[in-house]
């Protein structure tokens, strides 16, 4: 069981990192650059990061968490709230994908505030998961 916890924590850290980085990169990509000598196609980088880094880590984190739940026979009111927070993180992940598609289609209206909102929501949900897992209230 310790290797499952290690896998879960490692993949969760990577997923959370990308879930915070994606909205920041979206906001930077939506800003017009004047006089910049470096121009990388941000939508390509964003799509790669989303599909090849964030999504696999998200799936591994959720699968290893499910395995931890089954093997460790975890129960408690805190777990229900934690699963609700993780569901919110999945929603933030999906919103990042939607915002990437909007950026690719050059629909930039409202992209920056939406990205900021996703980042704030994701950070709040991550903090909630951390508090619930470490504190285990309602046990």
From TrEMBL:
Names of the cofactor(s): heme b
Pathway noted in the entry: Porphyrin-containing compound metabolism; protoporphyrin-IX biosynthesis; protoporphyrin-IX from protoporphyrinogen-IX: step 1/1
Biological process (GO), any one: protoporphyrinogen IX biosynthetic process
GO cellular component: plasma membrane
Spans through the membrane: 44-71, 78-101, 113-134
MF term (GO), any: protoporphyrinogen oxidase activity
Top-level division of the source organism's lineage: Bacteria
Keywords of the record: Cell membrane, Heme, Iron, Membrane, Metal-binding, Oxidoreductase, Transmembrane, Transmembrane helix
InterPro entries per the UniProt record, alphabetical: HemJ-like
Protein location: Cell membrane
Cofactor: record remark: Binds 1 heme b (iron(II)-protoporphyrin IX) group per subunit.
Topology relative to the membrane: Multi-pass membrane protein
Enzyme class, broadest EC rank: oxidoreductase
EC number(s) from the headed UniProt entry: 1.3.99.-
Principal subcellular localisation of the protein: membrane
Reactions accelerated catalytically: protoporphyrinogen IX + 3 A = protoporphyrin IX + 3 AH2
PANTHER family: PROTOPORPHYRINOGEN IX OXIDASE, UPF0093 MEMBRANE PROTEIN SLR1790
Membership in a protein family: Belongs to the HemJ family.
Function: Catalyzes the oxidation of protoporphyrinogen IX to protoporphyrin IX.
Protein name (record): Protoporphyrinogen IX oxidase
């Amino acid at each position: 069981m310790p290797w499952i916890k290690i896998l879960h924590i490692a993949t969760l850290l990577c997923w959370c990192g990308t879930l915070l980085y994606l909205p920041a990169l979206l906001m930077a990509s939506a800003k017009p650059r004047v006089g910049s000598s470096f121009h990388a196609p941000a939508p390509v980088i964003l799509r790669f990061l989303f599909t090849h880094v964030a999504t696999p880590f998200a799936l591994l984190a959720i699968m290893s968490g499910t395995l931890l739940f089954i093997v460790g026979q975890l129960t408690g009111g805190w777990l229900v709230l934690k699963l609700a927070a993780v569901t919110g993180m999945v929603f933030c992940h999906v919103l990042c994908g939607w915002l990437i598609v909007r950026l690719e289609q050059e629909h930039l209206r409202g992209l920056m505030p939406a990205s900021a909102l996703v980042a704030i929501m994701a950070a709040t949900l991550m903090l909630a998961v951390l508090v619930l897992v470490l504190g285990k209230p309602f046990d």
